[in-house]
């Protein structure tokens, strides 16, 4: 995979030929900003149903392995 | 096989029972699914129950929806409450979403009968459906060939008559290319036309849901129903669905159709020959063919394969074995993350995550991702100039007809080139659709792609309908 990735990155250098100094970047099709809804209480997902799909849950929370006490 | 509009008409007026329709489709699935593998899951029991309910409503004289009794297949990256949604990835195998995608809610409200979840390239990353963790889908027209991808299962399901229509998602051509390779109609609408709420995200600024159907009218009917503003998707365009069926018989007299004079090379001669015939047909029907230049088209592949993996690397960070999907246990949190992702993701997904994180990393951001975003602007500007002089543009959908299994799997760049004609549309956010138009090598179907500008679906469908009449 390393050589494949290297080959791709080499191919992607084709855009180096372009003069992009004055070009604005385009991150999305439309300039939509801060789409907000009215602050009205609405139904949310069922907690038990959500936790029921987690690999491990306990006391209404997701359960994970220890996060401290190991070299990370 | 019955068209979607015929099923709706028959079920609504009582001359056709939804239960009979669904049994006909389930029988076809029973007969051929073992060799095609269009589905990750067939929801036969629920489909039978839903069809029976529609029949009961018709009998009771109740009003039924505009898709009453229509068997529809869903790409397995759209959330279905309580029904397994895998994205054809081991990391999500067994996951049952706690909610329905907006498109699923709209389909159910319209009376559609969901027959199952279709196979795809893992997380929609691929052009042949060979990247599915659960095995490839085969092209129903020739089982030795790919159906295209990433929505290969949805295309194959319609082509094989397993469903009257289906939904797919298109990030760089994943609806249009498989539609072309399987000989069906496939539509990528304007970005923001169809809600992405409940579509498992791949590259959020490019992803868009759209329909597969046997013909243009069915595709237009289905697209009208799934379109429209959704407050649950902040990128949803705040306007109602565009009327499409009403324009299908308008013809193309007076329309200006763009012919790209600097189309990227590498297209099979048979495919180009069909494209020329398509131009001839439109000219005969009263359209004018106008030459257009899109000089940045040659850089689209690079821009796309930097932007899409960059967005994917961020979107797929959520699969960490904590909140959903599968986990590989380990002694500490970081080891668990690594072991889960190592075991859960396939090779192509890992390749794109690495490519994306590299393109976004400090020191390389400006050289890769930053530059790709500027190329995206150039492409958008090219299209804007072209659409001052034309109403739609015609290109091939795919450079080739359906290819043999394994012929591109060793060379990711060769596989990426399958998307060379479809990617530009996603970068610009425009609509485009593939319409079957004749055949190419080995009598396999060729798709012609009709492109239009933002919210130009009416012009696009007029041209598509004319091409269908001429083919």
Keywords:
heterodimer, A: 72 residues, mainly alpha, two-stranded antiparallel sheet, flat, B: 471 residues, alpha/beta, 15 helices, globular
Notes on the structure:
The complex is a heterodimer of chains A (72) and B (471). Chain A is mainly alpha-helical and 72 residues long. Chain A is built from 2 helices and 2 strands. Chain A has helices at 2-11, 47-51; strands spanning 57-58, 61-62. A two-stranded antiparallel ribbon of chain A has the order 1-2. The radius of gyration of chain A is 24 Å and the shape is flat. Chain B is α/β, with parallel strands linked by helices and 471 residues long. Chain B has 15 helices and 11 strands. In chain B, strands 1-3-2-4-6-5-10-11-9-7-8 form an 11-stranded mixed β-sheet, with helices on both faces. In chain B, helix 2 runs antiparallel to helix 3 (44-59), helix 9 (300-315) packs across helix 11 (347-360) and helix 9 packs across helix 12. Classes of the chains: A mainly alpha (72), B alpha/beta (471). At the A-B interface, helix 1 of A face helix 9, helix 10, helix 11 and helix 12 of B.
């Amino acid at each position: 995979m390393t050589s494949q990735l290297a080959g791709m990155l080499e191919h992607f250098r084709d855009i180096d030929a372009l003069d992009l100094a004055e070009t604005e970047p385009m991150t999305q099709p439309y300039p939509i900003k801060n789409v907000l809804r009215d602050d009205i209480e609405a139904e949310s997902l069922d907690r038990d149903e959500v936790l029921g799909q987690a690999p491990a849950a306990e006391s209404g929370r997701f359960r994970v392995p220890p996060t401290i006490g190991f070299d990370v | 096989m019955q068209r979607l509009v015929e099923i709706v008409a028959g079920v609504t007026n009582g001359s056709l029972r939804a239960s009979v329709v669904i049994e006909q489709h389930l029988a076809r699935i029973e007969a051929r699914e073992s060799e095609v593998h269009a589905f990750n899951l067939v929801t036969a029991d629920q489909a039978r129950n839903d069809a029976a309910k529609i029949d009961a409503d018709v009998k009771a004289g109740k009003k039924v929806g505009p898709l009453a009794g229509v068997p529809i297949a869903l790409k397995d990256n759209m959330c279905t409450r309580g029904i397994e949604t895998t994205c054809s990835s081991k990391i999500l195998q067994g996951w049952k979403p706690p909610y329905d995608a907006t498109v699923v809610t709209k389909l159910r409200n319209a009376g559609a009968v969901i027959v199952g979840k279709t196979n795809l390239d893992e997380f929609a990353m691929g052009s042949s459906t060979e990247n599915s963790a659960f095995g490839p889908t085969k092209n129903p027209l020739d089982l030795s060939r790919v159906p295209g991808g990433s929505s290969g299962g949805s295309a194959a399901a319609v082509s094989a008559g397993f469903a009257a229509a289906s939904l797919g998602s298109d990030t760089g051509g994943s609806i249009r290319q498989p539609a072309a390779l399987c000989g069906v109609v496939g539509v990528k609408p304007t970005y923001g036309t169809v809600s992405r709420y409940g579509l498992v995200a791949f590259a959020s600024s490019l992803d868009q849901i759209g329909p597969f159907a046997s013909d243009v009218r069915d595709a237009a009917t289905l697209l009208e129903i799934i379109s429209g503003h959704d407050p649950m998707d902040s990128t949803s365009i705040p306007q109602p669905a565009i009327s499409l069926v009403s324009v299908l018989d308008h013809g193309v007299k007076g329309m200006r159709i763009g012919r790209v004079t600097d189309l990227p090379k590498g297209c099979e001669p048979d495919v180009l020959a069909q494209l020329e015939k398509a131009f001839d047909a439109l000219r005969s029907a009263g359209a004018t063919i106008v030459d257009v230049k899109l000089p940045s088209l040659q850089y689209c592949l690079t821009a796309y394969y930097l932007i899409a993996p960059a967005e994917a690397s961020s979107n797929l960070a959520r699969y960490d074995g904590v909140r959903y999907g599968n986990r590989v246990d380990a002694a500490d949190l970081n080891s668990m993350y690594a072991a889960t992702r190592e075991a859960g993701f396939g090779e192509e997904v890992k390749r794109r995550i690495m490519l994306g994180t590299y393109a976004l990393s400090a020191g390389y951001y400006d050289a890769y991702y930053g530059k790709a975003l500027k190329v995206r602007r150039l492409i958008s500007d090219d299209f804007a100039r072209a659409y001052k002089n034309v109403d739609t543009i015609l290109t091939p959908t795919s450079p080739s007809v359906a290819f043999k299994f394994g012929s591109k799997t060793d060379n990711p760049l060769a596989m990426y080139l399958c998307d060379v004609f479809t990617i530009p549309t996603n970068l610009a956010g425009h609509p485009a659709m593939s319409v079957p138009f004749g055949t190419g090598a080995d009598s396999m179907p060729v798709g012609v792609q009709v492109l239009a500008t933002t919210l130009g679906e009416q012009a696009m469908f007029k041209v598509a309908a004319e091409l269908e009449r001429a083919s």
